[in-house]
Amino acid sequence: MSAFRGKAPGAGSGEMSRRTQALRPSIALDPAEAAKARKMRRAGAEPGDIASALKVPVEEVEKALVQMRSPRPETTRGTLNVTLAAHRMIMQERVGDEPIWQTVDRLLDELLRRRAAASEKRARAAKAAVELPLLTLTKS
Predict the structure, then answer these.
(1) Distance between CA atoms of 112 and 90, rounded to whole angstroms?
(2) Dihedral (C-alpha) 43, 48, 51, 55: value to the nearest 10 degrees?
(3) What is the count of structural domains for the chain?
(4) pLDDT in tens, 42-54
(5) Helices (H), 9-99
(6) Is 138 part of any domain?
(7) Residue 4 has what pLDDT?
């Protein structure tokens, strides 16, 4: 196994910044109690039940729970895994220094509009073909 290459994370990596911590309201729970309250909430317990179990005011439990991280139900961005050729094409289609996500959105919008127009054209052609009278062959 090879040794770690690069700079190792610092001692305080992953911790909350001091500025963020200073902006948060003070909680009457110590960090261990706050962590336990959050764990109980993730398990499905209600704030009132957590307060009773920890023997602390419900307001303090609610302050601790408000600071919980929770998964976002809907993300606004994603990673698109494409070939290098597709990436080059998207970069060529960019307008100025437009963000790549806007370029992709614009290209997909254009594709969908063109498909809808082509579908309508095919539907009109099919309808017109049905309305044409059938030619009958006669021998002369």
Answers:
(1) 16
(2) -130
(3) 2
(4) 999 999 999 999 9
(5) 18-23, 31-42, 47-54, 58-66, 84-93
(6) no
(7) 60
